[in-house]
Amino acid sequence: MTHHYTQFGIIEQPQQNSSHNIVPFDPYNWENFFFGLIDRNDAEALLKGTEVGTFLMRESTSEEGYSLSVKETNDRVNHYLIKREQQEDGKQRFVISNNVVFVDIPSLLSHYKLRKLDSTPLIFPLGRPSIEKVIGRFKFEGERISDLPFDRGEILEVLSKPEERWWMASNCLGNTGLIPANYVKIYEEGDEISLQNLSSKSSGSTGKRYSANSVESNNNVNEQQQSNK
């Protein structure tokens, strides 16, 4: 049994079935459990067989904004509309179905992590399935808050490929962000050992957003320097 702390005290919850991809509940990394444009039927199918309190975020199919789909009981999933509204002060606010207003999505999720929406608080975020596993060819430090820094030899899971050169990925801690596609390769068994055995001089990134061509050019320069020694 696991324990979930709410304003109502400690709630005991059974462990999830291992077949369900439950991710860490970090309101500031809600992209981990955001499924994009799927309808309520798809959401209910994804939540089938999960424990009460399991939830996911998705784009609303009826109005501009998001929907929060929550497993409220063993046989019921509720869907809560989260509308984006422009306030008089010019700032954007998020209004959930019960007309409670929040400054951003993390604030909303944090609120209902401790309080019930209907019959349960938010407990188990259902994670998006990964497309593939990749491993870092070079160290990437990142330069923007949307980037996901990683080390050479670190294994990541690709969640989506919004651009040809920049992919959305997550690490073993559940953190998500954009990674440069040319800094990683498809993961194969034993890749960690192979990369560890390579000279550390050939690795590294300053964290700048180099193109694929510039990385290849740098590698060619390194090889030329080695041959001249």
UniProtKB/TrEMBL annotation:
Any single Gene Ontology cellular-component annotation: cytoplasm
Composition bias type Low complexity, residue spans: 199-229
Chain segments carrying region Disordered: 197-229
Keyword Cytoplasm listed: no
UniProt-listed Pfam families: SH2, SH3_9
SUPFAM superfamilies named in the record: SH2 domain, SH3-domain
Coiled-coil boundaries: none
Record keyword Membrane present: no
Molecular function via GO: receptor tyrosine kinase binding; signaling adaptor activity
GO biological process, one term: enzyme-linked receptor protein signaling pathway
InterPro entries on file: SH2, SH2_dom_sf, SH3-like_dom_sf, SH3_domain, Tyrosine-phos_adapter
All copies of domain SH3, residue ranges: 129-189
Domain SH2: 33-126
Entry keyword set: SH2 domain, SH3 domain
Protein name: Adapter molecule Crk
Natural source organism: Meloidogyne incognita
